[in-house]
Design brief:
By secondary structure, this protein is of the alpha/beta class. The chain is built from 14 helices and 18 strands.
Length: 429
C-alpha cells in the first residue's frame, strides 16, 4: 500500500510553489499525495506554515493544533511541519507542541525527503505538481530579500536575495506553457531586485521580455515589486507586449515622509507620487495594486491624514491594508516602541478600507457596458467565474458570467452588466 500524505499550504503563493515542488518529489517516490484534503485518514499530514505576522502565525499554529487533535483520534498518523514559522520558531514550537513528529525549515527539502525515506530527484520534468487550476501557474524567480524595512521579518527568515538564473526560469516557463498553462505569474519577495546578485544589474525587464516571447503564453503577470529604485524599463516592456498584463503589484506601505523614513523605505513622498504618475503615463490603462501599513510606531494623526489623502488622490484599482505587527528581531521591534494602540490601528485600517471600497465601486461601475476578455477559472453555482487582465487569482475581484456553458481555462469575451465594489457581473458576448 502506498503511504498517504495530506499536504497543506499556509500563507503566500511563494509557499505554494515550495509545496508543489515537495509534492512532485513525494509522488516521484511513490507516495499518494493529496493537496489540502478536507477529510479522510492519512499516514502523514505535512503543514507548510507562514510566519510573517501575528495573524498568519496564529493561523498556522491553529492548523497544527487541529491536526494534533486529529492525531489523538487516529485520523492522522504523523504530523510534519515545515516552512517559515518552523524556520523562525522551531525550538520554541518543539517544546510547545510535542504532538508534531518532525520540524523542518523553509529550505530543508532534502532533509524532509530523507525523513520520508525518499530519494531527491534532481532532474524531474516537470519539477512541480501544480495545485492551481491547470491554466495558470506561479513562477518564483528568487528567494530572500536585501531590503531593511523596519517592520519586516522576511529577511531574517529567508536570508539575503538569491536570483534564479534566467535560463532556469525560462526553461520552467516553457515547460509550463507546453503543458497547457496560459497565464504565468512571476513572484518573489521583491521582483524589482531580480538579477542584481547574479548579473550585477536589475534584469526584471529583460526576463519579462524573454518570457513574453514564449509561443503560446497568453498572459504574463508580475507580483510584489518594490518602489525604491523601481526598474522603469519594465514599463516599456509591458507597453510593448500584448501578452504582458497591464498590472503591477507594488507595496508602497505609506506616503508621509516621516513614516517612510521610520519604515526605512528609501523613498520619499514626492518620489512615490512621481513613480505612480510615471506608471500611468507609460502604460495607459494600467491596473495598480498596492498594500499599505497603518499603526507603525510613531504614526501620528497627521501621518495618517496624509495617507488618507494619498489613497483619495491616486485611486488605486486594488488596495489592501495591514496593521502593524511588532515582530521579533526586526529593526522596529528593537529600536521603536509599539506605541499606537490596537484600537487605533484597527480604526485606521477600517477607515482606509471604507474609502477604498467606494473607489473600487466607482471604478467597477464605470465598466458596466464594456466588453472585456476574461479567463474562466471555475464554475460556482449558476456562474462561471473568471478574471480580467486586471485581476490576479485569490487576491483581486472576479468576473461572474451567467447564461452560458463555458469551458474552464478558456478565454471568452463578455459584456459587463453590473458591478459591486469587489466583482463584476457579465454575460457572454
Amino acid at each position: 500500500m502506498k503511504k498517504t500524505i495530506n499536504l497543506l499550504t499556509m500563507g503566500c503563493s511563494k509557499n505554494r510553489v515550495d509545496s508543489e515542488i515537495l509534492m512532485r518529489q513525494l509522488v516521484a517516490n511513490g507516495f499518494d499525495v493529496s493537496y489540502e484534503a478536507e477529510s479522510g485518514k492519512f499516514d502523514f499530514v505535512v503543514i507548510n506554515t507562514c510566519g510573517f505576522i501575528n495573524d498568519a502565525k496564529e493561523e498556522s499554529i491553529n492548523t497544527i493544533l487541529e491536526f494534533a487533535e486529529q492525531k489523538k483520534h487516529r485520523r492522522v498518523g504523523k504530523i510534519v511541519v515545515c516552512g517559515c514559522l518552523s524556520q523562525r520558531y522551531r525550538e520554541e514550537l518543539k517544546a510547545e507542541i510535542p504532538e508534531v513528529d518532525a520540524w523542518f525549515g523553509k529550505f530543508e527539502l532534502k532533509p524532509m525527503l530523507q525523513y520520508f525515506n525518499a530519494e531527491y530527484h534532481c532532474n524531474l520534468q516537470p519539477g512541480r505538481t501544480l495545485t492551481t487550476p491547470p491554466h495558470y501557474a506561479y513562477v518564483k524567480i528568487s528567494e530572500g530579500c536585501n531590503r531593511t524595512c523596519s517592520f519586516c521579518a522576511i529577511p531574517n527568515i529567508t536570508g539575503s536575495y538569491k536570483s534564479r538564473p534566467k535560463e532556469e526560469i525560462l526553461e520552467e516557463c516553457r515547460l509550463l506553457v507546453a503543458s497547457g498553462v496560459k497565464e504565468i505569474i512571476l513572484i518573489a519577495q521583491d521582483l524589482s531586485f531580480y538579477g542584481v546578485d547574479l548579473y550585477k544589474k536589475q534584469c526584471l525587464a529583460e526576463l519579462m521580455e524573454q518570457i513574453a516571447e514564449i509561443d503560446g503564453l497568453a498572459w504574463l503577470r508580475i507580483h510584489y515589486t518594490y518602489p525604491a529604485h523601481f526598474p522603469l524599463d519594465v514599463l516599456d516592456v509591458m507597453a510593448r507586449h500584448n501578452n504582458i498584463c497591464n498590472y503591477i503589484d507594488i507595496a508602497l506601505q505609506h506616503i508621509s515622509d516621516n513614516m517612510l523614513t521610520r519604515m526605512r523605505r528609501n523613498i520619499s513622498k514626492q518620489e512615490t507620487y512621481n513613480l505612480v504618475r510615471e506608471f500611468r503615463k507609460r502604460v495607459p490603462g494600467l491596473v495598480l495594486r498596492t498594500t499599505l501599513l497603518v499603526g507603525h510606531p510613531d504614526e501620528t494623526d497627521q501621518d495618517f491624514a496624509e495617507l488618507v489623502e494619498f489613497v483619495k488622490d491616486v485611486r488605486f484599482d486594488r488596495l489592501g491594508v495591514f496593521t502593524y505587527s511588532n515582530e521579533e528581531h526586526t529593526y522596529a521591534f528593537e529600536n521603536y516602541t509599539d506605541n499606537v494602540s490596537e484600537d487605533v490601528k484597527q480604526r485606521r485600517m477600517e477607515e482606509i478600507m471604507a474609502i477604498q471600497q467606494q473607489i473600487s465601486l466607482e471604478i467597477n461601475q464605470k465598466k458596466i457596458g464594456q466588453t472585456i476578455k476574461v479567463l474562466i477559472d471555475r464554475q460556482e453555482s449558476e456562474y462561471f467565474v473568471g478574471r480580467s487582465e486586471g485581476d490576479s487569482p485569490e487576491v483581486d475581484g472576479e468576473v461572474l458570467v451567467s447564461g452560458a456553458n463555458l469551458p474552464i481555462g478558456d478565454f471568452v469575451s463578455v459584456r459587463v452588466t453590473d458591478a459591486d465594489e469587489f466583482d463584476l457581473y457579465a454575460e457572454l458576448v
